[in-house]
# Entry
Amino acid sequence: MNKMCLILCIAHALAGVLIAQVPCTKVASYQIDARLDPALKTVSGAVNLTWMNTGTSATKELWFHLYLNAFKNTNSTFHREMARHHSDIKQYMARFADDGWGYCDIISFSAAAGSFTADLTPQFVQPDDDNSDDETVFKVDLPAAISPGQSVTVKINFASRLPHRAPRTGYYGDYFFVAQWFPKIGVWYENEWNCHQYHSHSEFFADYGDYDVRLTVPSRFIVGASGVRTDSTANSGDTVTYRYQQECIHDFAWTAYPGYRVAVRAFEHPELPPVTMRLLYQPDHKRYVDDYFSATENTLKYLGLWYVPYPYSHITIVDAAWKSSTGGMEYPTLFTAGVDWLTARGSQDPLGVTVHECTHQFFYGLIGSNEFENAWLDEGFTTYATSRCMNTAYGPGAFHKVYLSRDGFGIPVTFKSSEKDQRDWIVENHQARGARDAMDKHSWDYVDRLAYRNNAYEKPALMLWTLESLLGESVWADIMQAYASRWSFNHPRPHHFIDIVNEFAPENMDWFFDKMLKEPGFVDYAVTHIESNAAVQRRGYFGVGEGRELKNDAGKDEEFESQVHVERLGQIQLPVELLVTFENGETASELWSGEELFKIFHFRGAKIEKAEIDPYHKIWLDANPVNNGKYRRTNGVASLRWGAAWLFWLQDLLEMIALFS
Amino acid sequence: MKIRNAFRRGFSLMIHHRMIIGIIYLVNLCIALLFAVPTFILFHEKVGALLLRDDLLSGLPYSWWSSFHFNAEGLEKTIRPSLAGFGPLLDNLELLLTGQIQSYGWFVICIGLAYLFIAAFFNGGAIALYADERRSFSTGRFLSFAGTYFHHMAALAVTTLVLFALVFKVIQPAIFSLVDQVVGDSLSQSFAWSINLIGYALILVLIFLLTLILDYAKVILISEKKNSSWICIGLAAAFIFRNAHKTIGLNLLLVLLAAALVLVAGLLSMINSSQLLLLILGFIFQQLFIAAKIATRLTFYAAETALYQEYAAARETVKKRKR
# Structure
């Protein structure tokens, strides 16, 4: 094991060269020295930040996130929104009982630039709402403006208290996951401060830079963090200081827990740079070690080949503690996943969540979109790429049910007769979460949590699948590669992606994005009726003058006049294709603009066997693909098969009830 | 009487009066068909013309089911992927431990209640025949006995309902509240899993003991021709307490038999095929399983009756000797 670690450390050092080659503008670079006190649940420390104005205008203010304050009390914007949207807010709030609240205090703040050095007083601001109780954003007024290209050095002493089982951060027993824990500068973006409060529906937005972090913890703790561990020093008092360094990242998270088991493997691919994968897993999850590594390897491989190679030398996978509320979250070069102690074969746990969070290393880590204002640019792309990667690497999963399910318990059973493609899951959620709201909104402005989820995750993912089908794999590959390479280590807006689509697509696709981003609603087309009737046979004179002809079709092969009724059941209109198959094996296809609510297509010839709208399944956005196709005649064998299964279930149920008679 | 002998006696009684199995099976089938036919028609209307219907022969395509379930109402909600293979048996076993019958909707509760009283009616007839020394079967006698004891059996069924409502609404939450306290802030899910399993095992034991007491209450009511079902419950509890190893042992043996039956049925039902012949064979096998399940339940009653009668006869002999 030690030899392996040595080899991997050398690999880190070698791979570090790769990071330096990445063209990243270092806007916000941090040196942090922090100490964990597990008994008091506190992290205190000092931040030394160098921030550079990369905009085109000067600023006389600096804005910072102070997100641990979201868990300071019930009145933070985060908790007010949770109370509005959470189905069982009492149960949620119970986790903070017995002093489980968390916060971050600024002890001192000083700044120095070319012309000044000053101690400054932070002032809490609420740019998104009028909640004066919210302390998740603060600003300081500088004595002089920082001009474009100029840097300012900021020194902050802070003291954080971690919350108990808060979403994404905090402690649970002696398990610590420490995220959003230090004062983090906002983004000077489009010549104004983009520094939003912490919202219950939103994730994060920050600038790239270098991180050099020293973490002091009791030596019994196993630690994992963003970046590469470059040093460790044993201190007096049974503590150890670990040093982590990483260039070109926009956040830093870490975890400490004495119970972690550690596994390390190397990702290697002839066309991609090597990556050291370090897994911190729970003691009773040894059986999932291979799954965690396999999912991470496949993500690095496929996304690296499809879009852009993962540029860092290291990735840390954290198998989050059960009930800690920290699983399934991404941070630069580190992500958390999670899995139940027992899972069903075919459930694709923990593969799915691992691929998803690892995919965020690309759509969030590398392509640093604004998760507050354009949530779909990271969650939608990630959901899309996750399903693509899962389908390619693992194929469909299977339906599974957890019997006797309750908190911490359940007996999972797989039903292999019901396959579950990753896209099926997305379509299912898209349909279930409703058609309210348009995609292009600030994440906290959505009408409710379901609307946020659908517009940030499912609808954009299906939109991207639809685009891929409409434009073809080759054009799509060019688009995605261009987007990933041009916007790595940068902050794209939706129009930047649309511009790239229009650059490569054979036609301008603005019409498509206008419908998708600005209109609420579903896409749903259906074949609702098919009929074939004997055609009236032509007999008598047809035509005029010399062209007049006596016709008698009697005795010829019978012809049929057929109708196929199609309907637009959704609100969003997209052009679709209709494919009709006749009983003689011939086919006919029609293109429908999809604008009318209802349309009848007429055919003459043999009887129709079946008709299908969107036959090549290009419109992945169709919320109910089941109604896309129909046979003209019904057949009852499938109904009998499931009718018999239902009968057996009821008979057995009745006999079970008889036990109580 | 030894446990083995009671079981043998019960089994031979059940075989001797095998017509009862046929009658109960037919009633079970007819009641189930009463609801299965509309379900079939409903299902056929939804899928009979769908392009996906061919896939439905080999399984329940998830894309179809999620969409169908999203729009489903009433009976349609009960169509689910777990109807395949072992699923129906597992679903019903889960119900036995959770009592969450309302999750299937009101119609299942109504059919269940109706069947509970029909089963109570037949129980009276069956136990009376098993307890009768004439040992001859006629449908008339069976139905006559069933009618004679119905009010007692119905009263016991209502008592059973009340007791099980108590188990699922009061005792079960109390057990799991305790489980949650024991689990506390443990970071180990395997520990939590094990403690929860103990919780479910406790509920299972409770169900087993309650069923045992209520079974013997029926047997005592008919064998002793008692008039109060409440007194019979007390007598049954006392009888089980005095003969714990025999009564519990016998029922454990019968539970093992039932578990083996379910296991075999479950394993065979996992053979999934879209071929019509295999589908028909599968259906026949399912029906045989239901009949076997009824036979097992009747064997419980018959063996319990045999054991109790042996005990009662011994008690009488002792009394006579004392006189």
